[in-house]
Amino acid sequence: xxxxxxxxxxxxxxxxxxxxxxxxxxxxxxxxxxxxxxxxxxxxxxxxxxxxxxxxxxxxxxxxxxxxxxxxxxxxxxxxxxxxxxxxxxxxxxxxxxxxxxxxxxxxxxxxxxxxxxxxxxxxxxxxxxxxxxxxxxxxxxxxxxxxxxxxxxxxxxxxxxxxxxxxxxxxxxxxxxxxxxxxxxxxxxxxxxxxxxxxxxxxxxxxxxxxxxxxxxxxxxxxxxxxxxxxxxxxxxxxxx
Length: 242
What we know:
The protein is an alpha/beta fold. The chain has two domains: 12-130, Oxidized Rhodanese, domain 1, CATH 3.40.250; 140-235, Oxidized Rhodanese, domain 1 (3-Layer(aba) Sandwich). The protein is built from ten helices and ten strands. It has a five-stranded parallel sheet with strand order 1-5-4-2-3.
């Protein structure tokens, strides 16, 4: 019945509650406490969701295991948090610096998400690594490296997480398609098992990093983010189908 319908607005239940006066709307600049790596890790162990607001490259070079990569630089940042992070989970933020953390909370306030933020990692990933905490990496794959794997009959599979209209304009032959907005809820439908190596791409390599973080949270281990995405693929004049 809902097939073909647009994804409902992120965090819609909170938005309705705010409009009905059942939840407060933040009027002042939102602020969450700064947490030491140990305090942060304790909350992660309790089940808090980590939202890493840094770039795809920074996330790829080192992040907290299980974190979602949702870049604050995106104009859809707060919407993507609402689409991707389960509504029942409190949120912890990782940012490049204090200004980026404030920016993230300010954006999240527009859709009533700031009340779920229970802390910010003080001094960012540098402090986490210096404290000896476990961290993970996300390999980055260029479009030429991906094309090489595909041409040479490698077992790598491709997942395109753009929207359907983008997909229809041109995509890599044989790629699976699933919008990043619904990926977490529809993983079984992509037809790629958690043991398979999978290269994930979008238009520019940003949404794909978010998708990679979702796959990693769900037990996928051989995940690669395609840098530059379909924009770089097309710029390199690599083959597509429509």
